[in-house]
Design brief:
The protein is an all-alpha fold. It contains 20 helices and two strands. The mean pLDDT is about 90.
Length: about 350
């Protein structure tokens, strides 16, 4: 009922040159929120918002095009490139990611030469998730490893273009790349000033992620007061997002109260509820996450296997590897054979590997 009313309100303002309303209408028609799903109408509303340089609409329109044939997929890449050239930093960041992890290659940004279909799948996923701030956390879950930062000039160039456009994700990515092997430099006044500026201009999840990172590295950086100042800037926004059941905000708040403050406030039940709901709707990342929690938190290996299996069936390499480990532990001829197949599938889904 609430979504139906919201949909009607969006339609009421759709003729007022409101790009945010157009973007939200595209979301409604794409996902069936308050109306029947209609991809053609979603595409039309996204396209109108794109003409007004709406960053979210660019990403969603690219995502829809990637579900089409090769020509449509090429249009999706070109759409991101044009958007980047128009100063839409989110498009630049996605293109940087895609080059860094070999999804796209070369000056024309074509799909991975040896695995074009796999590469298309990864770009489809990359445009369909609220990408976590931690690049490596995302990459490892989806089976893409790269511990050396940008490995091709194009990746660095796209990130820099995103930074010039004011994209906070691009700024954070370049910050981590710059001091990847020099963690102690995050205690320098100039670097802390840069971090502060990023937090002041970024959405609260970025601030929370940076604050938690300072806590992780506290034995080296030794700037607890600075980390706490970042938390104070980010907490009000994180708490508002948590009210909407934003998963990443909930996880950051859980980290803050459990690891930093060490108090009794817990968001764990809310986090599990959000993840379970997504998993039951078929979200493979949530299915993998739920499986991991059953394996490592409650030690319920049967439940872990169930959720890993669902995610593995959607070709999520991390789930395939995790499921293979559980099956190998059973040590039967059938389980070992299945584990071998899963590991081979995981390797096939990876575009790059450690050391490449």
């Amino acid at each position: 009922a609430e979504r139906s009313e919201a949909f009607r309100q969006l339609l009421a303002v759709a003729d007022k040159e409101n790009s945010e309303a157009w973007f939200q209408l595209g979301n409604c028609f794409e996902h069936g929120w308050g109306t029947e799903p209609n991809v053609a109408k979603a595409t039309d509303w996204y396209r109108r918002a794109v003409e007004r340089k709406h960053a979210g609409a660019v990403v969603r329109l690219a995502h829809l095009k990637l579900q089409g044939d090769d020509a449509a997929a090429r249009e999706a890449i070109d759409l991101l490139i044009v958007a980047s050239n128009q100063g839409i930093g989110e498009a630049s960041w996605i293109l940087g990611w895609a080059h860094e992890y070999r999804v796209l290659e070369g000056e024309r940004s074509t799909f991975h030469s040896k695995k074009p279909l796999v590469a298309k799948t990864w770009l489809l996923r990359l445009t369909d998730v609220d990408v976590p701030i931690s690049r490596l956390g995302f990459a490892r879950q989806w089976g893409m490893w790269n511990s050396r930062g940008p490995t091709v000039p194009e990746a660095l160039a796209w990130y820099k273009k995103g930074e010039l456009s004011g994209n906070s994700n691009s700024r954070v990515t370049l910050l981590f790349d710059r001091y990847e092997d020099q963690v102690q430099r995050y205690a320098e006044p100039a670097v802390m000033e840069e971090v502060n500026d990023i937090v002041d201009h970024a959405e609260p999840r970025i601030g929370g992620a940076l604050a938690s990172w300072y806590h992780y590295c506290s034995s080296i950086i030794q700037k607890p007061e600075f980390a706490e100042s970042i938390w104070k800037k980010s907490l009000p926004g994180l708490e508002k997002l948590a009210e909407t059941e934003d998963e990443e905000a909930l996880k950051l708040l859980q980290f803050y109260h459990f690891r930093v403050r060490e108090d009794s406030v817990s968001y764990e039940s809310k986090i599990v509820s959000v993840i379970r709901r997504k998993a039951e709707l078929g979200d493979p990342a949530a299915q993998y996450d739920l499986g991991w929690r059953y394996e490592h938190s409650t030690k319920d290996l049967n439940a872990a296997e169930k959720w890993y299996r669902l995610a593995a069936a959607q070709n999520i390499p991390a789930a395939q590897v995790a499921l293979a480990i559980l099956l190998e532990a059973k040590n039967t001829e059938q389980s070992i054979a299945e584990a071998k197949q899963l590991n081979e599938s995981a390797r096939e889904q990876q575009l790059i590997g450690p050391g490449e």
